[in-house]
Amino acid sequence: MLLPFPQLQMFSSFFTPSEGIFSPWPGSLDTIEAMPWSDAFKRKGASWRRMLVSQPPVQTMTIEKISFQLGRRRAVLENLSLRMGVLYDLVVPFINDNKVAFRVHWDGKSELGGDLKLSVFHGLSRTRDMNSAVDSRFRCDGEKPVEIPFGEWELETWS
After folding, report:
1. What span, in angstroms and rounded, lies between the C-alpha atoms of 55 and 67?
2. In 15-156, where does DSSP find H-type helix?
């Protein structure tokens, strides 16, 4: 898939053109580990953190957490002018083991609206808490935690 800016190719595992529980979920702990990590990449002033995710800038994003154990819950972030650093800072705290996958869609076609949708899927896991996060080696010095106003878990019937 071609990303809107060639500089974002190193983040290609974040993005997918399709949606649905059985569509591809390209992002995982493995894809985060496979990124070209270096001190320059993690530096607070790294230029990639300021890059727009798309043009025109994404203003609204829906975030959805899906769990076979707990169901589904959602949040909407608005007035973003979304930059790659913020998107990365939103994704990385969700990745806690190989039972987690994520994807980003540009279509924004969710019942909550939005220009962009981040979906995080937690498979069956008895060993990790869903609120634990990937270790510090994947954190950037310029990280800016974002408060995510999630709604309550909604029970889901999986078929």
Report:
1. 32
2. 29-33, 39-42, 84-91
Measured from the Cβ of residue 28, the count of other Cβ atoms closer than 10 Å reads: 19
pTM score: 0.79
Residue 74 to residue 104: CA distance in whole angstroms:
14
pLDDT of residue 128: 44
Token pair recorded at residue 63: 């975030």
Per-residue pLDDT tens for 11-27? Answer: 777 777 666 556 678 88
The total of other beta-carbon atoms located within 10 Å of residue 105's CB is 20
Which of 72, 82, 73, 95 lies closest to 148, judged by CA?
73
Beta-bridge partner residues of 67: 71, 122
Stretch 76-102: mean pLDDT: 86
